[in-house]
Each structure stands twice: as C-alpha cells, then as structure tokens.
Amino acid sequence: MQKTQRRNRPFKSPIKSNVSSTCETDALQAFFQIPFIAATVSATVIEVPSLRSVSTSGGKFPGCYSDTVMKLLRKFRSLNPGERSLLLRTVLLVAFLRAALCLLPFVRLKDYLARRAARHPIRQDIPVAQLIWAVRTTAAYIPRATCLTQALVAKYQLERSGHCARIHIGVAKENGQFRAHAWLECEGEVVLGGGVTDRYARLLAVD
C-alpha cells in the first residue's frame, strides 16, 4: 500500500504583495517597540518597590537595565500625571502610525484619522505646545518616526482638541538627490517641522 505524498503548498502572506519586505520588517520593528517603551514608563506609574529603591538610593539597575533607561525613568517620574498620560498615548500613536504608513495608502490613513478625531475629542485646554512636545519627545525613541509620521500624529491630536491643522509637504534637491519634508501648521503658524521649510518648495497641502 503506497503512502500518499502531500504536496508542500506555498505559504501565502496575508499582507498584499505590493508591500515590500522592507516595509513589513519596519512595521514589525515599530510594533515591537510598544511593549518595551510602555513597560518602561509604566513601571514608574505603578511604583514598583525594587525600582523605587534603586532610584532613591542612587544605584544602578541590575542585568539588562542601563543608565539610559534609569535616566528615562527619572525624567518620566518628574512629570505630572497629565503629562505622563499624554506621553503614553502619544507613544502608542507614533508607533501605530509609523507602521501604518508602510501598510496603508496615505490618503486612506489621513481620512481615517480625520473621522476618528471627530468621534473621539479630548480636552481642549491642553496647550498646543504641550501636544507638540509629546510628539517630539516620543518620536525620538521610535525608530524611523519620520517628519510625516510626526506631522500626522500631531495633526490628529490637535484636531481632537479642537484646533485646525494642515500638513505641508515640500521637496528640495540636495547633492543631486530629491528630498521630501513634511511640516505642520496650526492656525497659520508652523508648530512642527519648521526651521528648514525655506529650503523646500511646497508641493502639497493636506487639510
């Protein structure tokens, strides 16, 4: 009696074929940053005794904890509860949109954020400068959180708090190569990505 041989069927990826493997890898890396960052900053919120004792005694974390993480924990603990909550929410937003820009068309993502901002407003007494500070701070710890990622996150948060914001995308030619840059305007004033906008020719404005 002959054994029936099974054919090895090729694995079909659930991600569309037009998405490059590089984007898939980058998306996974961005998502994997969420547990580490959230766990690091949440440790100070729940006041873990071992971390508190190390912090107050001026010692160092054992094992894999580095001086850099220790400094981040101290800075985070020095913030008030409102600033901590804002940073935690912004970390998740930056990481999510960082990955989503690789997987979804920009127009589709922009429209989704606009609808969600209208359905999920936040406090309107949060200063614009504080929202921008949260985006800049968290983006510094998310790999490849580009100017476009930061502009999308800031636009979403500003619109949730009742402000009008517009993303500008410009291009410039440097050393024979074209470069793109995104910056954000809120009520006619550049609040994010400014300082280099005069080098870029405006190509697109996104409301």
Structural overview:
With 207 residues, this protein is α+β, with helices and mostly antiparallel strands. It has one domain (21-206). 52% of the residues lie in helices and 14% in strands. It contains 7 helices and 4 strands. The protein has helices spanning 21-45, 49-57, 67-77, 81-103, 106-119, 128-139, 147-160; strands at residues 165-174, 177-186, 189-192, 201-206. A 4-stranded antiparallel beta sheet has the order 3-2-1-4. β1 (165-174) and β2 form a beta hairpin. The longest helix is centred in the N-terminal third of the chain and has 25 residues, at 21-45. Residues 3-25 and 39-64 have low confidence and may be disordered.
What is the element string, with H for helices and E for strands? HHHHHHHEEEE
End-to-end Cα distance: 70 Å
Mean pLDDT equals 76
Q: What gross morphology would you assign?
A: globular
| Percent in strands | 5-15%
Tally of discrete structural domains: 1
Topology:
Elements lengths: L20 H25 L3 H9 L9 H11 L3 H23 L2 H14 L8 H12 L7 H14 L4 E10 L2 E10 L2 E4 L8 E6 L1
Give a summary of the structure in a few sentences.
The protein is an alpha+beta fold and 207 residues long. 52% of the residues lie in helices and 14% in strands.
Labels describing this entry:
207 residues; alpha+beta; four-stranded antiparallel β-sheet; 4 strands; 14% strand; globular; disordered N terminus
